[in-house]
Amino acid sequence: MLKKFLQNKQNQYEIIRFIVVGVICTLVDFGVSALIQYVIYPTADQYVLIGMTITLNIFLAALFGFIFGVITNYILSIVIVFKNVENKKTSRSVKGFVIFVLLSTIGFLINYAIKELGNLIIDMQTNFLWFVFVFGVATFVVLIYNYISRKLILFRPKKEVLEKKPDEEIPNQD
Q1: Is the pLDDT of residue 110 over 90?
Q2: Measuring CA to CA, how many Å separate 15 from each of 2, 20, 30, 32?
Q3: Among 14, 28, 80, 155, which one is least packed by beta carbons within 10 Å?
Q4: 15 by DSSP, 3-state: which?
Q5: Long-range contacts of 124-132 (CB under 8 A, 24+ apart)
Q6: Interior CA angle at 71 toward 70 and 72, to 5°?
Q7: At what angle do helices 94-121 and 56-76 cross, to 10 degrees?
Q8: pTM score, two decimals?
Q9: CB neighbours (10 Å) of residue 3?
Q10: In the predicted model, what is the mean pLDDT of residues 66-90?
């Protein structure tokens, strides 16, 4: 099934658009995160909340990076990425935005957990290269989660797109 999905040219173009948008949003997220973690709030205060250690500047950096990134991502996903959507009205509504934010929040929690784990292995406050590496790993994992969850839940393709043979060209349906 995955092979058939990946052989479809429309899906290939959509994945490429998703990756390009992901790079743009990652740059937004990274810029905001680094600015907060290293410039605005560089103090690594730690708190225990429900048995979990939270490093406040990492949390704030991840949160604000997420907020700016998710707004950018939602707009670009509608305009650039998911063009052949079964229900454009829902995906472009307040309900669609709320679903997008909820799916993205799960991605944020996955991202944050990976960053906290990375910080436990090597202190990211004192090692910027480790911060970049952990940021990249977290971003890659969440990229896969985001595409699958958004495609299956919010941006389902139109039925005729699903029925096309892999090599058939599908007209752009904005």
Answers
A1: yes
A2: 13, 9, 21, 25
A3: 80
A4: helix
A5: 124/37, 124/58, 125/37, 125/42, 125/44, 125/57, 128/38, 131/34, 131/37
A6: 90
A7: 140
A8: 0.70
A9: 7
A10: 85
